[in-house]
Amino acid sequence: LIMERLKRDLYAALKNRLEFSIRMRIALDVVEGLRYLHGLGLVHRDIKLKNVLLDEANRARITDLGFCKPEVMMSGSLVGTPIHMAPELFTSKYDHTVDVYAFGILFWYICSNGVKLPTNFDICSSKDILWSAVKKGVRPERLMDFSDECWEIMTKCWDTEPSHRPYLGEVQDNIEQILNTTRTTTTA
Q1: 101 lies in some domain
Q2: What is the mean pLDDT of the chain?
Q3: Active site residue: 9, 29, 46, 99, which one?
Q4: pLDDT at residue number 110
Q5: Mean pLDDT over residues 148-163, rounded?
Q6: pLDDT for the residue numbered 73
Q7: Looking at the predicted structure, is the pLDDT value of residue 18 above 50?
Q8: Is the residue at 182 inside a domain?
Q9: What Å distances lie between residue 128 and 27, 47, 83, 134, CA to CA?
Q10: Residue 127 lies inside a defined structural domain of this protein
Q11: Is 145 a catalytic residue?
């Protein structure tokens, strides 16, 4: 697989802070990439800051397809990055909705405009304690600067019940509305 050389990953970009509209555009790019993968019947299984690369114009590309598998072939193998892992990854029955969950966690970072671990996860002293907390429903905390619209996207995406998570088309529409509202507000 050959692709253009990309400038940096989302982790590095958020360490330096980005404008809100740029962050929402990045979120849209990730959703569009996931929709493309899911349309091919593939599940990424490791959506995180370091696996989103940005070009010079801050347009995002999903990378590291090493854990990517056809949905019909998933066996329940435990892969991914712990804080981004949906609770059902610990069972063995999961599908493309694990990427929706991981996007919800990624979106928390995008909206926070930083890379600091959510406090609710940072207090866990080991991966086992973190996984236990996630299985019990612990999620990142709401930060003061999160809009209601952004918070709603996150909480729907990381719902404990996979069937309650939104379709990515709905997530895309919601982020586009936020972005359009931002553009209207800044031009008014």
Answers
A1: yes
A2: 88
A3: 46
A4: 98
A5: 97
A6: 46
A7: yes
A8: no
A9: 29, 20, 11, 10
A10: yes
A11: no
